[in-house]
Specification:
With 377 residues, this protein is α/β, with parallel strands linked by helices. It has helices at residues 10-14, 29-34, 48-60, 77-86, 89-108, 158-167, 169-174, 189-197, 250-256, 282-298, 303-320, 325-335, 361-371, and strands at 2-3, 6-7, 18-19, 26-27, 66-69, 73-76, 131-134, 137-143, 145-150, 178-183, 201-207, 214-216, 222-225, 238-242, 261-265, 270-272, 337-341, 350-356. The strands form 6 sheets. Strands 10-9-11-14-15-17 form a 6-stranded mixed beta sheet, with helices on both faces. The protein has a 3-stranded antiparallel beta sheet with strand order 6-5-16. The chain has a 3-stranded antiparallel beta sheet with strand order 7-8-18, with no helix packed on it.
């Protein structure tokens, strides 16, 4: 059903969007489009009790849904309504998310342009010879590495990890990066450290639980914790974690220790699992939005362009399901996506190693030892 320039699901069109200051009655999107003056009211002027009642009424008209809160677990529709009514910590977050989307949706109803999904560039893959002679030296092309820490042993993170392994990892491989994946029981700090410290590693990404200071892997293993790691693990790298809260403290900490850029979320990342009663796969909206950052970096974009494209992806996703619970949490996640560090950061899929001849005996020995290992006679 079309209202203004936006296409609403039938149930979303029936949901109250605001409260008439004069009469106290609920207003739908159609009411606001037909009487633009109603748009002047502010949800921020309503008392908490009224805003809670508005949010509860909106949730009641939504088909059954389940929210996944990275770092908290699963929340059903009935549980979410109870959280709202009791204004628990999650209930306050849910109320803030719902009011933010309603306010933005009222403004969008007056707009003439519907946000579009960003187009990730598909330019030609750079062709660099594997080696080229220069005087008595040769330059060998060595692929750089992308390190993925994917939590595949948790019910909330596993669907995202599977989506990323199917849609994000191949994009880096196609561009010539060496893809290193820590998954399952291997997604732990003991395995992370040597891979992160490797000088060829230029990008670190993954899905996992988190807090303001910690990114975790399998069974809560602390993969990266603010003020508790060697700077060599992040120096000169770009990082993107799909996790709760890590952009608040851990992200800036990595920049202070030499990381070039960090993208993540400053508060809980919340998603809606797919509602089979609707034609749109809500889960994929969240997965596609977040993955836009990784795919843009793989394509050679700067971190700032990747960030802007990700925000554009969230805007397009929100516009595709206006008025729904999914739209509320897409808005929440978008508003808490943060980029720290140098926005001009790019990653490339190779480095050149200069090898000169002739080598001295000691240089040959060092090269052989680096390439292999000593064994007994």
């Amino acid at each position: 059903m079309k209202i203004g320039k936006l296409e609403f699901k039938e149930y979303a069109a029936k949901k109250p969007l605001a409260v008439d200051d004069a009469t106290g009655r609920y207003l739908t999107a159609r009411d606001i489009v037909e009487k633009p003056a109603l748009r002047l009211g502010s949800l921020l002027s309503l008392d908490t009790e009224t805003r809670v009642k508005l949010a509860v009424e909106r949730y009641k008209l939504e088909p059954d849904f389940t929210l996944g809160v990275i770092g908290m677990g699963l929340v059903t529709k009935e549980e979410a309504i109870e959280h709202l009514k009791n204004q628990t910590e999650f209930g306050q977050l849910a109320l803030e998310a719902e009011m933010a989307h309603c306010s933005e949706l009222m403004a969008a109803l007056a707009g003439e342009i519907v946000p579009k999904w960003p187009v990730i560039p598909k330019g030609p893959i750079p062709k660099v010879p594997d080696w080229k002679p220069i005087k008595r030296c040769i330059f060998l092309k060595v692929p750089t590495r992308v390190l993925f820490c994917e939590n595949t042993t948790d019910a909330v993170t596993t669907p995202f990890a599977n989506y990323r392994m199917a849609n994000v990892h191949p994009a880096f491989a196609a561009r010539g990066f060496s893809v290193v994946v820590l998954r399952g029981v291997d997604d732990v700090r003991a395995n992370f450290v040597p891979q992160a410290k490797n000088t060829l590693t230029v990008y670190i990404s993954g899905i996992g639980h988190g807090s303001y200071t910690v990114y975790t892997g399998h069974a809560g293993n602390r993969i990266l914790e603010a003020c508790a790691y060697d700077s060599a693990e992040v120096k000169d790298k770009a990082i993107h974690f799909l996790s709760c809260q890590t952009a608040k403290t851990l992200g800036p900490d990595t920049i202070a220790k030499g990381a070039r850029a960090y993208a993540g979320y400053s508060e809980n990342f919340i998603l809606q699992w797919d509602n089979s009663a609707t034609p749109i796969d809500e889960f994929k909206l969240f997965a596609k939005c977040d993955s836009t950052f990784d795919l843009s970096m793989a394509a050679g974009c700067t971190a700032q362009v990747a960030f802007n494209s990700t925000v554009a992806a969230f805007n397009a996703a929100i516009a595709s399901v206006p008025g729904t619970v999914a739209a509320s949490y897409l808005t929440w996640d978008r508003d808490h996506l943060k980029l720290h560090g140098d926005g001009n950061t790019k990653i490339v899929s190779y480095r050149l190693v200069k090898v000169c001849f002739p080598m001295t005996a000691l240089e040959r020995q060092a090269a052989l030892l680096a390439a292999g290992e000593l064994v007994a006679d």
